[in-house]
Write a structure and sequence with these properties.
This protein has one domain: Gcn5-related N-acetyltransferase (GNAT) (Aminopeptidase). About 25% of the residues lie in helices and about 35% in strands. It is built from five helices and eight strands.
């Protein structure tokens, strides 16, 4: 893919999408400090921890995680990651996660990040993409990915707990990828 990539958000605001770079640790720490604890709670890692982010940056060039960021006015406003498996029965399936600052949600930044992650997955030769989203929390994301032909493969009932101990279902959504789709 060609980076940096310019995109226009709603209200004609411009953003740049580019790979996460080794020098971005301070920008990414600031980004995650602006994400609410409730939003961060459902992530796989404690991104509010400097140690976790430091470990990410120590492994930034590894082949199994591709991270991209949305940048506006010299600050990271969105982060997307594609997780690959180098071996085994599911190495043809990538997993992804996208998170956007609240003030940049519903402005198409998440859509731009998703389109790039789909293209990155295809460039890596993957045959499917998977995302796990929390029903009742990630409803806007569930609606968004279904517009891009993701389908609900399964629902894990009462699988996740929020910070107050309330159970939530996890929806597993899958997209089959086609090799002929070109860069957009």
């Amino acid at each position: 893919m060609r980076y940096p990539k310019e995109c226009v958000l709603k209200e004609c605001q411009e953003a740049i999408i580019r790979p996460l770079e080794a020098g971005d640790i301070t920008l990414l720490e600031k980004f995650y400090s602006l994400i609410s604890e409730d939003d961060r709670w459902f992530m796989r890692y404690d991104v509010g921890s400097p140690e976790v982010l430091q470990k990410w940056f120590e492994n930034i060039d590894l082949a199994y995680v591709k991270s991209i960021v949305g940048v506006c006015e010299d600050k990271i406003v969105g982060h997307g990651s594609l997780h690959l498996r180098g071996y085994g029965a599911t190495q043809h399936v990538g997993r992804f996660r996208i998170i956007v600052l609240p003030e940049y949600r519903q402005k198409r930044l998440g859509t731009w990040l998703l389109l790039d992650l789909i293209q990155l997955a295809m460039d890596e030769g993957l045959e499917a993409l998977r995302t796990d989203l929390v029903v009742g929390v990630d409803n806007a994301a569930i609606e968004a990915v279904t517009k891009f032909d993701f389908f609900k493969e399964a629902v894990l009932r009462d699988y996740a707990k929020d910070r107050n101990g309330k159970f939530h279902d996890i929806a597993i959504l899958i997209k089959r990828l086609h090799r002929q789709w070109s860069d957009f």
